[in-house]
Target: lytic cellulose monooxygenase (C4-dehydrogenating)
Amino acid sequence: MSSNMKTSSLVAALASAATVAAHGHVSNIVINGVSYQGYDPTSMPYQQDPPAVVGWTAADTDNGFVAPSSFGDPDIICHKSATPGGAHVEVAAGDSISIQWNTWPESHKGPMIDYLAACSGDCEDADKTALEFFKIDGAGYDAATSTWASDVLVANNNSWLVQIPSNIAPGNYVLRHETIALHSAGQADGAQAYPQCFNLAVTGSGTDVPAGVLGTALYKEDDAGIIVDIYNGLTEYTVPGPALIDGAVSSVAQATSAITASGTATVGAGSGSGATSAAPTSAGEATSQASPTSAQPTTAQPTTAQPTTAQPTTAQPTTAAPSTLLTSTRAPTTSAVPAPTGGVSAAALYGQCGGKNWTGATSCAEGTCKVQNPYYSQCINA
Model:
């Protein structure tokens, strides 16, 4: 293929990727003020020599999701056709990691869930189908305030804090971070899972090696918390997946994190507690996570790192993390699926295109507008 043809293909691919605005992906993670680049599925597949990053690669170039019908497929582990990230970063047990999404639609409400899985060697060489995940974080719905964990994510500049339990043994781990969008979950196969994975080298003096569950066995299509009508007086919600391990906190106090430096993840050949991350690229002292404004369960605070200078970002308003309700859900409902017409603009693939009180676009730039329930219609592939 000529260089001109390659350039044209790249421009077309990037133009297509630029239209994907309905969903998101994790752009970076922040540890003690130091930011590490994640995997960008909308641009890195088109780069000739993409960098090795802490995030796993995945084929979700449309920022798409994994449906419940694929919960038994390897795609649910770390997203579609995922392969291990080429690098890892070090974090101390007891510290918190701020996971930064590039964007997230407020309409895509659901839980925030985090798992760890120990790697038998370097996580860069891990067999995802053999990883056994244990849950370290699970926040769902607070009926008292009608607040979803995803609402807290959005309120905190699309970021989520998760604490690495202080009692786990040092070593190499895959962090599996996930939100499950429930706007269409009132019908079978309507929930949308967005798993994201990262390679960590955990240090510390803990001794616990929790038992885990294969990624393909975390959820079932008909689990409570997977089929649920979130629009009609929901009072209870079950966060799907196994129970939290001993020593984990349901959800730490949520807040944004000031970024004071950029770091480079260590490429390959991690060796558990002995593996280290490359030094941040600029001088100055890193800050720990910002303090939240509302009361939360007591948790260990992140330690302070010592990277070199950079301009800190402005912290966003803080929001309390919702409680997790582990109870039953109502039976699923279904709705007709005629495609709405009209509208002054077109919604992107997977974007909202209708529903009760919806005032935005009612046609689709790509795909077909289908009614998921009376409150939500979505552009999906025909």
User: Anything to note?
Assistant: The first strand starts at residue 26 and ends at 31. The two ends are 32 Å apart (CA to CA). The first helix runs from residue 3 to 18.
